[in-house]
Amino acid sequence: MRTMDSVALVLVLVMVVLAGGSKLDWAGPEEPCESGQFTASGDCCEECPPGEGVVVPCGAKQTICGQCMDSETFSEASSHTETCQPCTQCTGLMRMHTPCTDTNDALCVCDYGYFLNWVTQACEPCTVCPPGQGVLSACQYDQDSVCEPCLDQTFSDQESSLDPCLPCNICEEETEILLRSCTPTSDAICHDPNRPPTEPHSPSAPTFTLLDGSWSPTPGEELTTAYPSSPHFIGLGFNENLIPIYCSILAAVVVGLLAYIVFKRWNSCKQNKQAANNRATTANQTPSPEGEKLHSDSGISVDSQSLPEQLAAQAQSRVPEQIVVRVDGGVQPESPPPQA
């Protein structure tokens, strides 16, 4: 009897366990909240993706995101709290290596000729290799230049932070003679005695001088170097001598124009003054009304100053007629008396 009760109890327990497991399998596990924060209604707060920043944070309502401005602001990671951050500006000895985007900040590195010292975290000038040493690895923004001594027929005759050691010139054993051996700071010099000398002051060959002032070979001697100097032609200075001539011509033209303008103004003033004087003289010699009337009646121009004399002469030349009244009432003009 006890055995039957024990078996029944075990069966009941097994059924309960199986029923609970099937129920858990049917419901499934709950999805986790990545932000770890919930709204007032119990919803999981959403995160803004890279390139977007939080405009309104999650709280009573859901998170509100906004797009970051390219080249101005950025957002690198998903977040439900972070806003768009301003882009880094490269200033001073820093230059922009990669530009700023909406998902990545700008990357600034040391400017050309400088490298970042990891100890001081500051940009420092690149090391310059002295003569006799060449550049093994060029200077970069994150590492200094590395120099090495020039060996095995190589040389470096100048300071540089970019150029490596150059190979020395090799003279031909059959035709050339070694005048100077190669050193770490100078190249080898070879001479070919069988090559015909060039005639000095040849009309067809232009005259030139060397910019660096180095010595030139004697007639008939030819030197072979790895990097010959650049020629500087004397004829190039002719254009520089023309500049003062052009300036003098321009100054003469300007002075001539000014003199011509002054002369024209003076001549115009002189003519205006003479015209004013003529008008004043004409106003003083204006004829009287009697003279104008006589001029209009007879058509003869009469001078106003001689008009009284002319009128007196005409009065003397004329003899007034004497009128005699007769007894019968008639009128008889009396003959004028004889003139003296």
UniProtKB/TrEMBL annotation:
<feature type="repeat" description="TNFR-Cys">
    <location>
        <begin position="109"/>
        <end position="147"/>
    </location>
</feature>
<feature type="domain" description="TNFR-Cys">
    <location>
        <begin position="67"/>
        <end position="108"/>
    </location>
</feature>
<feature type="compositionally biased region" description="Low complexity">
    <location>
        <begin position="277"/>
        <end position="286"/>
    </location>
</feature>
<protein>
    <recommendedName>
        <fullName>TNFR-Cys domain-containing protein</fullName>
    </recommendedName>
</protein>
<keyword id="KW-0325">Glycoprotein</keyword>
<feature type="disulfide bond">
    <location>
        <begin position="87"/>
        <end position="100"/>
    </location>
</feature>
<keyword id="KW-1133">Transmembrane helix</keyword>
<dbReference type="InterPro" id="IPR001368">
    <property type="entry name" value="TNFR/NGFR_Cys_rich_reg"/>
</dbReference>
<feature type="transmembrane region" description="Helical">
    <location>
        <begin position="243"/>
        <end position="263"/>
    </location>
</feature>
<keyword id="KW-0472">Membrane</keyword>
<dbReference type="InterPro" id="IPR022325">
    <property type="entry name" value="TNFR_16"/>
</dbReference>
<feature type="domain" description="TNFR-Cys">
    <location>
        <begin position="32"/>
        <end position="65"/>
    </location>
</feature>
<keyword id="KW-0732">Signal</keyword>
<feature type="disulfide bond">
    <location>
        <begin position="150"/>
        <end position="165"/>
    </location>
</feature>
<feature type="compositionally biased region" description="Polar residues">
    <location>
        <begin position="298"/>
        <end position="319"/>
    </location>
</feature>
<feature type="disulfide bond">
    <location>
        <begin position="90"/>
        <end position="108"/>
    </location>
</feature>
<feature type="repeat" description="TNFR-Cys">
    <location>
        <begin position="149"/>
        <end position="190"/>
    </location>
</feature>
<keyword id="KW-0812">Transmembrane</keyword>
<dbReference type="GO" id="GO:0005035">
    <property type="term" value="F:death receptor activity"/>
</dbReference>
<feature type="domain" description="TNFR-Cys">
    <location>
        <begin position="109"/>
        <end position="147"/>
    </location>
</feature>
<keyword id="KW-1003">Cell membrane</keyword>
<dbReference type="Pfam" id="PF18422">
    <property type="entry name" value="TNFR_16_TM"/>
</dbReference>
<feature type="repeat" description="TNFR-Cys">
    <location>
        <begin position="67"/>
        <end position="108"/>
    </location>
</feature>
<feature type="disulfide bond">
    <location>
        <begin position="126"/>
        <end position="139"/>
    </location>
</feature>
<dbReference type="GO" id="GO:0048406">
    <property type="term" value="F:nerve growth factor binding"/>
</dbReference>
<dbReference type="InterPro" id="IPR034046">
    <property type="entry name" value="TNFRSF16_N"/>
</dbReference>
<dbReference type="InterPro" id="IPR052302">
    <property type="entry name" value="Neurotrophin_rcpt-DD"/>
</dbReference>
<dbReference type="GO" id="GO:0006915">
    <property type="term" value="P:apoptotic process"/>
</dbReference>
<dbReference type="GO" id="GO:0007266">
    <property type="term" value="P:Rho protein signal transduction"/>
</dbReference>
<dbReference type="GO" id="GO:0005886">
    <property type="term" value="C:plasma membrane"/>
</dbReference>
<feature type="disulfide bond">
    <location>
        <begin position="129"/>
        <end position="147"/>
    </location>
</feature>
<dbReference type="InterPro" id="IPR041448">
    <property type="entry name" value="TNFR16_TM"/>
</dbReference>
<feature type="signal peptide">
    <location>
        <begin position="1"/>
        <end position="19"/>
    </location>
</feature>
<keyword id="KW-1015">Disulfide bond</keyword>
<keyword id="KW-0053">Apoptosis</keyword>
<dbReference type="GO" id="GO:0009986">
    <property type="term" value="C:cell surface"/>
</dbReference>
<dbReference type="GO" id="GO:0015026">
    <property type="term" value="F:coreceptor activity"/>
</dbReference>
<feature type="domain" description="TNFR-Cys">
    <location>
        <begin position="149"/>
        <end position="190"/>
    </location>
</feature>
<feature type="disulfide bond">
    <location>
        <begin position="45"/>
        <end position="58"/>
    </location>
</feature>
<feature type="region of interest" description="Disordered">
    <location>
        <begin position="277"/>
        <end position="320"/>
    </location>
</feature>
<feature type="repeat" description="TNFR-Cys">
    <location>
        <begin position="32"/>
        <end position="65"/>
    </location>
</feature>
<dbReference type="Pfam" id="PF00020">
    <property type="entry name" value="TNFR_c6"/>
</dbReference>
